[in-house]
Amino acid sequence: MTGDSTRAVRAGLPAAEAYEPSLPGPVFAAHYHLPGDATGPYTYGRDSNPTWTRLEAAIGELESPDADAHTVSFASGMAAVSAVLFSCLRNGDAVVLPDDGYQLLPAVRARLESYGIEVRTAPTAGDAQLGVLDGARLLWIETPSNPGLDVCDIRRLAEAAHARGALVAVDNTLATPLGQRPLELGADFSVASGTKALTGHGDVLLGYVTTRDPALADSVRMWRKTVGAIPGPMEAWLTHRSLATLALRVRQQSAGALALATALRERPEVTGLRHPGLPSDPAHEQAVRQMRADRFGSVVSFTLPDRAHAERFLAALTLVDDATSFGGVRSTAERRGRWGGDAVPEGFIRFSVGVEEPADLIADVMGALDAASGAGSS
């Protein structure tokens, strides 16, 4: 039995070979030599690639260290999401989605409904999806939810869904496999955008699906082949390389996020503060039960009085990039309402804590809040 840091450093590496690198470089190939009628693990670039194989083995070790699992990598998180939904659902099926999840889910809903699939929605908090499960083919869970950071009980929902004959997929992007393991809690799929914390440097688009069921993995893999949503070998290699520091980054980011959330509690202009690690957070009790105690994620959300106040705050930050996405080594923040896809107030801020020293980051945030409040009162 090894710890998370050890596992992350070693995951997916080939056996040591004299004079060869520990992590071989990316393999760029559209086709492979196929003598005669021979077939093998690598035939054509849309089907398979040795660089994917190593990455997928590594992610499988992190998502499911105690049981065999199958991972399929994709060109983006949304490609992974789409693969699960559209490989599992058919005309006449019903699916349950969170109504407070990632902002592209409404677009996904419209597409599903255009194919004759019934879409039901319910909030993440309070396990509200339990009330609309009957007759569903698939339950989609996002916990913690993005951007509201609500948490639901994966095990409870999975047991209820399976009792009704439904499959369960969990978007594990915000938690990462080092913060939460959905497959151990009963989910059929763990899905994530590797663009976020998994790669952590804001320079790679990638997604993945992990399942312990070989048939489900084959179905998802066939979807990837059919639509061609494959990752590039360089992106796959960069992602695998980044796994070695995942545990260090997640630990530092989670500690910094909790420290920032604690400091924000003292600010009168801040409302709606959320972070699962805060003992006062509505989701904390459930988060403690299913997430690692020191890894509640890098994201803090809160609301400032209005749009102008939020924009003054963002403009005054010096250590934080005004950018979308989360989980990177550099802190980012954005006024989430600018996209129009989330049901959030105009002053809602989604803040992703990087690996900066927490004291430096907190000082920068407090200074920006002071500047934003001063500008508003002048």
Layout of helices and strands:
Elements (H helix, E strand, L loop, with lengths): L3 H7 L39 H14 L6 E5 L2 H12 L5 E5 L6 H10 L3 E5 L15 E5 L11 H10 L3 E5 L17 E5 L13 E5 L2 H14 L5 H11 L2 H19 L6 E4 L9 H7 L8 E5 L3 H10 L4 E2 L9 E4 L12 E5 L5 H20 L1
Parallel strand pairs: 2-3, 2-4, 4-5, 5-6, 10-11
Antiparallel strand pairs: 1-7, 6-7, 8-9, 9-12, 11-12
Helix pairs in contact: 2-7, 3-6, 8-11, 10-11
InterPro entries: Cys/Met-Metab_PyrdxlP-dep_enz (IPR000277), PyrdxlP-dep_Trfase (IPR015424), PyrdxlP-dep_Trfase_major (IPR015421), PyrdxlP-dep_Trfase_small (IPR015422)
GO molecular function: cystathionine gamma-lyase activity; pyridoxal phosphate binding
Organism: Streptomyces rimosus subsp. rimosus (strain ATCC 10970 / DSM 40260 / JCM 4667 / NRRL 2234)
Distance between the termini: 60 Å
Q: Class of the largest domain in CATH?
A: Alpha Beta
CATH architecture of the largest domain: 3-Layer(aba) Sandwich
Low-confidence segments, given as residue ranges, are: none
Mean pLDDT: 96
Tally of distinct domains: 2
Number of strands: 12
Q: Give me the strand/helix succession.
A: HHEHEHEEHEEEHHHEHEHEEEH
User: Radius of gyration in whole Å, from Cα?
Assistant: 21 Å
